[in-house]
Structures are given as C-alpha cells and as structure tokens.
C-alpha cells in the first residue's frame, strides 16, 4: 500500500473512531462499550498500515475525542487503555513468545490504566468515591479484580476479532488497494 493510500485509510479510521467517541455523549450506556469499539478499529490500521501509523491514528483520535466527545469518562477510558491496547497487543504477541509473559505484561498495563483512570476520574471528573461502594462498603479493589476477569475475556475477544479480520476483511482490502 503506497503512502497516499495509507494516509487516506488511516484518516477514514480516525474519523470513524472519533465519530464513535462522539456518540458516547448521546448513548449513556456507551461509556464503556464505545471506547472499546473505537479501539477495535485499530486492528485494521495495524494490519494494513503498521504499528507506527496506528500510534498516529491513536494520537489523532485521542486529541479529537478530548475536543469533541461529551462523555469525558469515556474519553479517559479510550486514552488510557482502549485506544492503544490493540496496538500494544500486536507488539507484545509478535515480540514476546511466552504466553505467560504476554499475559503478565497485559495485566500490568490494564491494572495501571485502571488505577490511573480511577484516580483521574475521582480527582478531575468529579466521579464520587461512593460510586465504588456496595451496601456502604468501599470496594474499589473488588471492582479491579472483577475488571481483570473482564479484561481477560476482552483480550480473548480481541484475539478472535484479529483472526476474523485477517481471514475475511484483510484479503478484500488487500485486493482493493492492489487494484489501484
């Protein structure tokens, strides 16, 4: 794929991802799901243009989301984790051969992002600490533990999406761009 096609492709993905993040202000339950979906779009950029271009798309989409999306908590989720995770996953799985090491690094990154998200949300977005309570018990660590389980499921789902992308969509895009 030549430079112009890469730039156009990445621009379209950036616009689509930013539009998804913009929807977080219109769809209240989208605070968690829409940043994850916007991040999944990075799979196509990594596959078609490479990780360098994917990081550029992530940066552009993050800046545009900060400026345009109404749900700043969703933007924080995207910037701190979901936006770069498919890129990081690709790098880790291509460079670290041991699955145990890959999983450990992924969990460290997720936990760091989750704790940072919690701190920033409470400090700057006025998310009340009481929202992390169950029956009056303050349990953020329990939420973090549950988040780790959900993250492992998410990681597996991303792996399945990558396999599906390469088996079904990548050949069509490759064929489309080769014919130009």
UniProtKB/TrEMBL annotation:
Protein name: VUT family protein
Species name: Caproicibacter fermentans
Membrane-spanning parts: 6-25, 75-92, 104-126, 138-166
Record key words, sorted: Membrane, Transmembrane, Transmembrane helix
Source organism superkingdom: Bacteria
């Amino acid at each position: 794929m030549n430079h112009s096609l890469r730039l156009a492709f990445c621009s379209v993905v950036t616009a689509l991802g930013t539009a998804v993040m913009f929807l977080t202000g219109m769809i209240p339950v989208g605070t968690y799901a829409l940043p994850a979906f916007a991040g999944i779009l990075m799979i196509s950029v990594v596959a078609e243009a490479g990780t360098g271009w994917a990081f550029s798309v992530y940066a552009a989409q993050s800046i545009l989301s900060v400026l345009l999306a109404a749900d700043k908590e969703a933007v924080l989720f995207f910037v701190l984790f979901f936006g770069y995770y498919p890129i990081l996953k690709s790098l880790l799985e291509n460079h670290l051969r041991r699955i145990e090491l890959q999983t450990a690094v992924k969990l460290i990154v997720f936990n760091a992002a989750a704790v940072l998200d919690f701190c920033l949300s409470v400090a700057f977005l006025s998310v009340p600490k009481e929202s992390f309570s169950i029956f009056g018990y303050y349990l953020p660590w329990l939420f973090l533990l549950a988040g780790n389980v959900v993250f492992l499921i998410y990681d597996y789902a991303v792996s399945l999406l990558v396999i599906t992308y390469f088996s079904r969509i990548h050949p069509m895009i490759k064929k489309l761009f080769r014919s130009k």
